[in-house]
Amino acid sequence: MSLQTNLKGRLRNTALPKTHGLMPVFEAVVNSIQSIEEKGERDTGKIILQIDRDKQSTLDLESKELPPIVGFTIIDNGCGFNDENFKSFKILDSEHKIEKGCRGVGRLMWLKVFDRVEIESHFASVEGCLNKRTFNFNDTMAVHKEQLVNSDEKESGTTIRLIDFEKSYREKLSTKGLSIANQLLEHVLWYFVRQGGAPKIIVNDGSDSFDLDDLLQKHMHSSAFHETIHIFNHSFDLTHIKFRSSVNKKHQIALCAANRLVEEYSIQGKIPGLYAKISDETGDFIYTCYVSSEYLNDRVRSERTSFDIAEDVSDLFEDITLRSIREEVLKRAKQYLNDVLSKNIAAGRKRVEDFISNHAPRYRPIVGYVNDELLIVDPDKSDKELELHLHAQWYEVERQLVEEGHDIMQPRKEDHVEEYKKRVSNYLKKAEDLKQSDLANYVTHRRVIIDLLQKTIGLLDDGKYAREEMIHELIMPMQKDSSEVFLDSCNLWLIDERLAFHNYLASDKTINAMPISESASGKEPDLLSLKVFDNPILVNDQINFPLASITVVEMKRPMRNDMKEGEDKDPIEQALGYVERIREGQVKTKDGFLIPRNDHIPAYCYVVCDLTPSMIKRCKNFSLTMTADGMGFFGYNPNYKSYIEVISFNQLVRAAKERNKAFFDKLGLPSN
After folding, report:
1. Which end of the chain is less congested by CB atoms within 10 angstroms, N or C?
2. Which fold has domain 1-211?
3. Is the pTM higher than 0.70?
4. Cβ distance 185 to 219 under 8 Å?
5. Is the Cβ–Cβ distance between 543 and 593 less than 8 Å?
6. φ and ψ at 636, to 5 degrees?
């Protein structure tokens, strides 16, 4: 009993991604190559791929958009549709030419993308004369309108017209003839690099003509290198090719079946030293390895867009996976490119070493715990990209440390005492190195903050000075208090290292908005720090906490020269006024406990501003003493029981550098 095939149903069940709309066209070209080989005249063989555009549309000169593609015509001088080939054409899944990798489903791809196909073929009859066979092909009538007559042509050959390009496929491809020619070359490249070469193939697009031999010469960096490897007793032929770097490609592995390109895998970054730009003695190039094998031929899916091979986990009877193939090919690629990669690896290592030494010393302690290959990077990576890469490695080392810590706390029963001691020792060494990394990061952070402050206090690009808000945000986020910011978000150490130790900190908030104070004052200090200490006599009494000190910081815009008497204009008076209001208010701790009123609570007032003439005058009015370097004033006001320090911006930067210089020097960071 014979089985019938429903052509429309078969097409519906045949998958072809929308991005593969040119696949049927390229497959038709491959058929022409095989037809020429069957004729035995490869040297004189010729194939023309003609791009057919909508004649009713014209070139849009303004947008430079080409008329839409409506179809393709493929012309060759092969053996033609003789009786045997025609019989095979009418049988889906035919085994005719199966030894060449043909699956007998290529014609299905035509109807998946095009509305109909018209074929005219001239072939040699048994008697030796030429016959002409014409027929149409579509999804409703299959093969129809067949005619067989004597031919007037002088040689055999076939013309295939793929008509009415389906819109959903057409929209996904480039409309430029050169782009289509390049994609065709990539698809049939195997035929060009094999021994014996390929027939002449030309792509015509109106008045433009592209010879694939010329494109190959333009794209090829050097001659191809062939070798054979074995994976689980299966042979795989590798063709290593260097393309000129002008080609819009990435380094890749290309898996082929039946002399056609099927799948591509980018390998950029998968081999140490294989960066976006690589070069040998003759210049820059892009690397591709074409892989072919009977194993791949047997397992390519009928539409030739993928393989019936497991990606990673193999089944019970099969050892080869796509991943194992790629890994073995990568080993050979690494060997083939060894000379080029060794230079790049050295440059990549130096890039990491220089970056760590000059910009990110925090990563130096973890280098010994990171795989060597992960410390080889593209020398052209930006500092930002490199920082992100190293941070990812740091995070992985920290993750391993946490995991090892849990294991250390739960010794295995089979652990020998000496082995366990060794594990503990290794764990503690890694923990110590990671903490050194944290410290280095903190010191580096300080170096960056000092640099930012130095830039902020200078003239901006518009010739003006920064407003105090910019400097304020650098030292402490505005409109925040202790409950809203992390300690490492503040840079109070710029003013005084002791400000890092506080019980309550408020930034740019009115006193009556502070949960630690119930004062009715609506005044807002730039920075307010309150320190509370336990009364030794009341160690176990958590109700009353005497206030240890008050610190107020006022900041003014660089080069401000309008200071005068009055709390609204004199930053010293402003700071002292805040101190008085805190002393007089019913102050509570952050937990809501009352702090006894005390007029003798010590206070520290810092004013950060430039020493302009008006500011110097205000300092003298408060009987402050100029520092030896002339960059600030200091003193004690007995009436307010407050220590006062006026710090110029230059002194703020210089003092911060001097306090941290030893740390910067230890890490190799410049202190100037």
Report:
1. N
2. Heat Shock Protein 90 (3.30.565)
3. no
4. yes
5. yes
6. -125, 130
